Amino acid sequence: RVRIYVRVPLWVRVELHGGATMRLTEIPSVILSDTWFGDFMEGELCYFQPTTARREVRPEHFDDHLAVCPILLSNRSQDPLAVEKLALRVAHLSIFRRGRELWADETRVRYRGDEAGSEIRSAHSPPSEAPDATLLTPPRTPADRGFRARTFSRLKGLSGLGILG
């Protein structure tokens, strides 16, 4: 088991409040490039952001347009897990604020092997590092229970094609 922290860029939502709330627009704080995560048959379109996973969070890691996401990784397979890429489904995360710090709820990932995928759960509460943080926004796509998905990707060559997937 290991606890890591990654930072993800936020989106700014502009709404009109009156009798009913109307969303006018959403603007990303960082323009990310599209990428394909997974293999050719079972992959998914997602955003790509190179980031450094940290083992601890210090005050200088907080920025106005980024949320710190604690991730608890557990390897439940018999094989070693070398993480090269990680798919973090941020639509299932709430955002919390404590002073100038922005946090996402903790994501727990239990890796069960290449074929079984990963069991993923969001805590739906402020992380233990910021227990007094207040809810800023709920998840875009609530996930009442955990779900299974491919979370890790490893570089695998396609023989004869010179392509890494």
Outline the fold blueprint.
Blueprint: E1 2-9, E2 11-16, E3 22-28, E4 33-37, E5 44-48, E6 66-75, E7 85-86, E8 95-98, E9 101-104, E10 107-111, E11 118-122, E12 134-137, E13 147-149, E14 152-153, E15 157-158, E16 163-164
Parallel strand pairs: 6-10
Antiparallel strand pairs: 1-6, 2-3, 4-5, 7-14, 8-9, 8-12, 10-11, 11-13, 15-16
Concise synopsis of the structure shown:
The chain is an all-beta fold and 165 residues long. It has no helices and 16 strands.
Question: Can you walk me through this structure?
Answer:
The chain has 165 residues and is mostly beta strands. The protein has one domain (2-154). It contains no helices and 16 strands. The strands form six sheets. The chain has a five-stranded mixed β-sheet with strand order 1-6-10-11-13, with no helix packed on it. A three-stranded antiparallel β-sheet has the order 9-8-12, with no helix packed on it. It has a two-stranded antiparallel ribbon with strand order 2-3. The model is unreliable at 146-165 (pLDDT under 50).
